[in-house]
Specification:
Layout: E1 5-7, E2 22-27, E3 39-42, E4 45-49, H1 60-77, E5 78-88, E6 91-93, E7 96-98, H2 103-106, E8 111-119, E9 134-141, E10 156-157, E11 170-171, E12 176-178, H3 198-208, E13 214-217, H4 224-231, E14 235-239, H5 243-261
Parallel strand pairs: 1-14, 2-5, 2-13, 8-12, 13-14
Antiparallel strand pairs: 3-4, 5-9, 6-7, 8-9, 10-11
Helix pairs in contact: 3-4, 4-5
The structure holds S-adenosylmethionine.
Length: 262
């Protein structure tokens, strides 16, 4: 198997990846919300367009079939002690929340270890309800008793540390993670309209893999999962249908080697 490669094709089939060869899947699938990603809009009309767009509007049945194929392939290539971390958010239908719990149907043959709430400070505003400020990360494992979890590598400083009561100043980060979205002034920002932050993926890869392990992202976008895997000494594999995003990912990855050689 060729490692450290992003395929410019759909991940519905991953013919180059053998069964049981990948340690961890981390991804953020398209949400099928027809969002005007990166566009400044007013009442549905586009006022200003930024970045390179990708299609995010399929028939719901076709969308679910696509995800079923992709995640079936992910499960095929995952090792017996492998895990899958899926970042997804709520949808809104005429102001009514539709949580993404339908994802559980696609992972019935795996075990949900954590449903993590990723909380951030930034996003659209509304005066009709509380403004949405979280997304989910579903963490599934193949074997509920045999999986990698390097808690010590991801512990965070305890704000209420008391030397008389606790042995360590570091604590479990819990299942609510406060991590900033990638805003416009971040060095890691690319023109991908739905980029997730390196810090979020860093915690997942550190906790869920060891050095030299293989990380797969079937919806690679701008290459965030691959960049973080490379920085942390893990191998990466990925799929992305839009060739412009593959170029952005390659460019980001080439900078990681330069940074590491400094
Ligand atoms: C939510 S974005 C991922 C963004 C990524 N996490 C990042 O940090 O840049 C989803 C990506 O999946 C890609 N995509 C959609 N359908 C795909 C498919 N069948 N196979 C591979 N990639 C696909 C889209 O082009 C889009 O870039």
């Amino acid at each position: 198997m060729i490692l450290d490669r992003i395929y410019n094709s759909t991940s519905e089939n991953m013919p180059d990846i053998p069964d049981g060869s990948v340690d961890l899947v981390v991804t953020s699938p398209p949400y099928n919300i027809d969002n005007q990603y990166g566009n400044k809009t007013e009442k549905g009309s586009i006022l200003e367009s930024k970045g390179i767009k990708y299609a995010d509007k399929m028939e719901e049945n076709d969308y679910r079939k696509m995800l079923l194929s992709v995640f079936s392939e992910c499960k095929r290539v995952l090792k017996k002690n492998g895990s899958a971390w899926i970042n997804i958010k709520n949808r809104y239908d005429n102001g009514v929340v539709i949580p993404p719990f339908w994802l559980l149907d696609l992972f019935q043959d795996m075990y949900l270890k954590n449903l993590i709430v990723w909380n951030f400070d930034w996003g659209g505003s509304t005066n009709k309800r509380f403004a949405p400020r979280y997304e989910f990360v579903f963490w599934f494992v193949k074997d509920k008793n045999n999986y990698t979890f390097n808690l010590d590598d991801v512990k965070i400083p305890a704000l209420n540390y008391r030397p008389d009561r606790y042995k360590s100043q570091l604590k479990n980060p819990t299942d609510v993670w406060r991590i900033s979205m990638v805003s416009g002034n971040f060095e890691e920002r690319t023109s991908h309209p739905a980029q997730y932050p390196e810090e979020l993926i860093e915690r997942i890869i550190l906790a869920g893999t060891n050095k030299g392990d293989i990380v797969l992202d079937p919806f690679m976008g701008s290459g965030t999962s691959a960049v973080v895997a490379k920085k942390l000494g893990r191998h990466y594999l990925g799929y992305e249908t839009v060739s412009e995003y593959c170029k952005i990912a390659d460019e980001r990855l080439s900078r990681v080697s330069e940074d590491n050689n400094e």
